[in-house]
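PROTEIN DESIGN WORKSHEET
SECTION A - STRUCTURE
LENGTH: 753
TOKENS:
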């Protein structure tokens, strides 16, 4: 499930990590311990010393945890000196005001004054209106830290706007989460005697700001629609609250349920649940709810865990919920809105298809947040601090390009189609198939310059059959994800995947080797393309336009294609004008994946329609997106996935993925076809050399020995997995680059260490 990594040997050899530690019962203890475990697992050669604040309640910590008495000021300076004597290269602080002693936790300042090594601070709480002491402590931490890590973009905004922190000093790393397989809740319910119940879950330390009253007040309406509904509140009362009030708050909640007549539909579990059991509880839930009352909560570990387990989430719109659930990854209702909670929860409980779609979207998002990924990103930042100036190591290239070869594609394919993912070079059956990859594979079968005719016909049939089966004629939409057991996991896929299906059909209708495949593709295109005329995703529009541009060459004056090209071309022009700024001539306020497909679609549409305004716009925006991917040293730098969602901001370096290089190469081929200018061929070759080692890390992303491709560049090295998307990106790039004039392959301004 997680990405297999092959990191460069880190220069950081020894880290001191300070925060809390299990078995202390608090969220920061769990987070710090999970962080320590993730780093140790991902980087076994790095020594990590775990320092934990001890609140004096008699907790017995593991032997490898160094306890610091929270209220003993002298202990902080002693701990700092011990860290210095240990030879640690870096101090990593997990900061929360409540866990360190002194006014606003200012005893911690004695510790940082006693060390001379670089410091990185992860900020778990950021206040827009801090007290004088809180501001004083945070200002000192900021001044002493080389990097600040926050878990949401709102944290970045607060640091920049309120504390005047330079943007380059701030890194956003989402809250880490465990990595588990997606499970049908019905499989887990018997363990907790929940069979036959529709389970709604909230977990975490119980406190008044969690808004449990709001959800209990929603239960009568939910139970009216779903008598088998059960709301479970899982978690012990917060220790600070329990010390002052005992269980008065829990008793108040129980009384509220009784007064509303839903006691039988409520279950309170007063326990601090260990992570494995907690994940089991989550996997048994049908819907997860966070009805918090305060907007300013920037981080919620409970929400992150729920998303990682693929739970359909209904939440109030606090900061972290707005960010993590954006893009249709969950549902939001107003603060204190019991009726809104009741409506959304009831709707999900009654609509299995909607609930499953939301669950799969959440689960996919969760895979980007797993602990090992967090560890790799953090160590990558530490490496940049340790290396005042990274020396780029350029791998010698043995050729200008790799001849297209379908061997790795066929290795990942069976009689059903091409499997999505690989564990290293081995196909991963757990994740099944998707339309996206099989559409790309069909395009490859059309574009490979050399292939045995019988083999080409066979595999064209396989990938074409997948597209045919993915088409849901009743719904007039494509499905995307299919399990290894050949069962569809959804009734309809995303707009982008459907757009890729139409793109592949247009290409096959124009370029397939055999007439029978061209005829089939044109027939299915005429069924599918009209239903995509109202997609709203810019990339879906671009994919459809690329298919329509191909089909317009098959059937001159083809009404469906002409309409789609004009409609979406005009819409892209409108989007550009709506978003354009002097420094941002782009269609969206942010960068994402497959960026160059948007200008490519305009160029191809303009060539087919004779619309010079489309061509000109495509060339202008392609120039700009190429500039965003041109490293100072001269090599191509693919827009990293860390850039996604950052409005009007320059792209981040990592994670760099092959799909982005392929999109640039294809767009430059379109620009060269439109203008004949050599500069577009040069830009395409620069992007292609990224596969061959002319990149930020000087590592071969392509795997020439087996005609394959790794899944990209992480801050610490290669992602050694070889999935369908990456393999196809290399092979399709090789097909495209072969159609362009050759240029010098000498990397620009490369330094060889």
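SECTION B - SEQUENCE
RESIDUE ASSIGNMENT:
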């Amino acid at each position: 499930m997680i990405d297999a990594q092959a990191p460069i040997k880190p220069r950081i050899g020894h880290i001191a990590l300070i925060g809390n530690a299990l078995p202390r019962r608090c969220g920061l203890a769990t987070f710090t311990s999970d962080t320590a475990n993730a780093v140790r697992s991902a980087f076994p050669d790095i020594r990590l010393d775990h320092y934990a604040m001890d609140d004096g309640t008699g907790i017995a910590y593991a032997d490898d945890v160094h306890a610091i008495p929270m209220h003993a000021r002298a202990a902080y300076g002693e701990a700092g000196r011990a860290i210095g004597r240990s030879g640690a290269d870096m101090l990593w602080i997990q900061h929360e005001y409540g866990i360190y002693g002194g006014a606003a936790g200012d005893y911690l300042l004695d510790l940082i004054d006693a060390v001379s090594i670089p410091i990185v601070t992860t900020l778990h709480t950021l206040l827009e209106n801090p007290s004088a002491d809180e501001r004083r402590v945070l200002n000192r931490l900021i001044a002493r830290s080389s990097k600040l890590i926050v878990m949401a973009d709102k944290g970045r905004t607060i640091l920049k706007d309120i504390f005047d922190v330079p943007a380059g000093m701030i890194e956003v790393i989402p809250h880490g989460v465990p990595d588990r397989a997606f499970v049908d809740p019905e499989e887990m319910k018997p363990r907790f005697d929940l069979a036959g119940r529709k389970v709604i879950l909230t977990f975490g330390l119980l406190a008044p700001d969690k808004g449990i009253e709001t959800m209990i007040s929603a239960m009568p309406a939910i139970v009216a629609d779903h008598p088998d509904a059960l709301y479970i509140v899982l978690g012990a009362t917060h220790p600070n609250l329990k010390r002052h009030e005992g269980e008065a708050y829990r008793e108040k909640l129980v009384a509220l349920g009784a007064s509303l007549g839903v006691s039988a539909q409520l279950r309170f579990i007063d326990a601090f649940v260990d992570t494995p059991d907690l994940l089991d509880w989550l996997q048994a839930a049908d819907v997860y709810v966070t009805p918090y009352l305060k907007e300013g909560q920037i981080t919620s570990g409970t929400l992150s865990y729920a998303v990682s387990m693929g739970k359909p989430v209904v939440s109030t719109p606090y900061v972290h919920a707005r960010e993590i659930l954006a893009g249709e990854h969950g549902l939001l209702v107003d603060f204190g809105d019991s009726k809104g909670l009741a409506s959304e929860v009831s709707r999900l409980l009654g609509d299995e298809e909607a609930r499953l779609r939301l669950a799969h979207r959440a689960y996919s998002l969760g895979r980007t947040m797993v602990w090992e990924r967090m560890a790799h990103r953090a160590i990558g930042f530490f490496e940049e601090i340790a290396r005042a100036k990274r020396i780029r190591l350029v791998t010698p290239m043995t050729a200008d390009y790799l001849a297209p070869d379908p061997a790795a594609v066929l290795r990942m394919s069976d009689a059903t189609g091409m499997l999505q993912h690989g564990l290293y070079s081995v196909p991963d059956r757990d994740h099944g198939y998707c339309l996206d990859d099989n559409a790309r594979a069909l395009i490859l079968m059309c574009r490979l310059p050399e292939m045995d005719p019988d083999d080409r016909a066979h595999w064209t049939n396989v990938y074409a059959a997948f597209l045919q089966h993915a088409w849901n004629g009743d719904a007039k939409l494509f499905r995307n994800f299919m399990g290894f057991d050949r069962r569809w996991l959804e009734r309809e896929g995303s707009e982008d995947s459907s757009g890729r299906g139409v793109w592949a059909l247009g290409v096959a209708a124009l370029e397939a080797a055999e007439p029978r495949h061209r005829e089939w593709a044109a027939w299915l295109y005429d069924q599918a393309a009209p239903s995509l005329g109202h997609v709203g995703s810019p990339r879906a529009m671009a994919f459809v336009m690329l298919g329509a541009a191909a089909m317009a060459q098959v059937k001159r004056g083809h009404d469906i294609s002409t309409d789609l090209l004009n409609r979406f071309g005009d819409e892209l022009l409108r989007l550009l004008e709506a978003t354009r700024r002097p420094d941002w001539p782009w269609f969206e306020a942010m960068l994402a994946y497959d960026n160059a497909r948007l200008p490519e679609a305009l160029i191809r549409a303009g060539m087919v329609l004779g619309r010079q305004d489309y061509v000109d716009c495509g060339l202008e925006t392609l120039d700009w997106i190429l500039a965003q991917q041109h490293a100072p040293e001269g090599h191509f730098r693919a827009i990293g996935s860390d850039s996604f969602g950052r409005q009007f901001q320059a792209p981040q370096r990592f994670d760099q993925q092959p799909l982005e290089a392929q999109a640039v190469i294809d767009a430059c081929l379109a620009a060269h076809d439109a203008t004949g200018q050599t500069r577009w061929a040069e830009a395409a070759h620069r992007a292609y050399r990224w596969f061959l080692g002319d990149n930020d890390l000087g590592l071969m992303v392509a795997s020439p020995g087996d005609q394959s491709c790794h899944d990209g560049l992480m801050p610490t090295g290669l992602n050694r997995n070889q999935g369908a998307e990456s393999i196809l990106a290399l092979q399709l790039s090789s097909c495209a680059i072969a159609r362009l004039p050759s240029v010098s392959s000498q990397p620009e301004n490369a330094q060889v260490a």
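SECTION C - NOTES
Residues 184 and 283 are 7 Å apart (CA to CA).
The radius of gyration is 27 Å.
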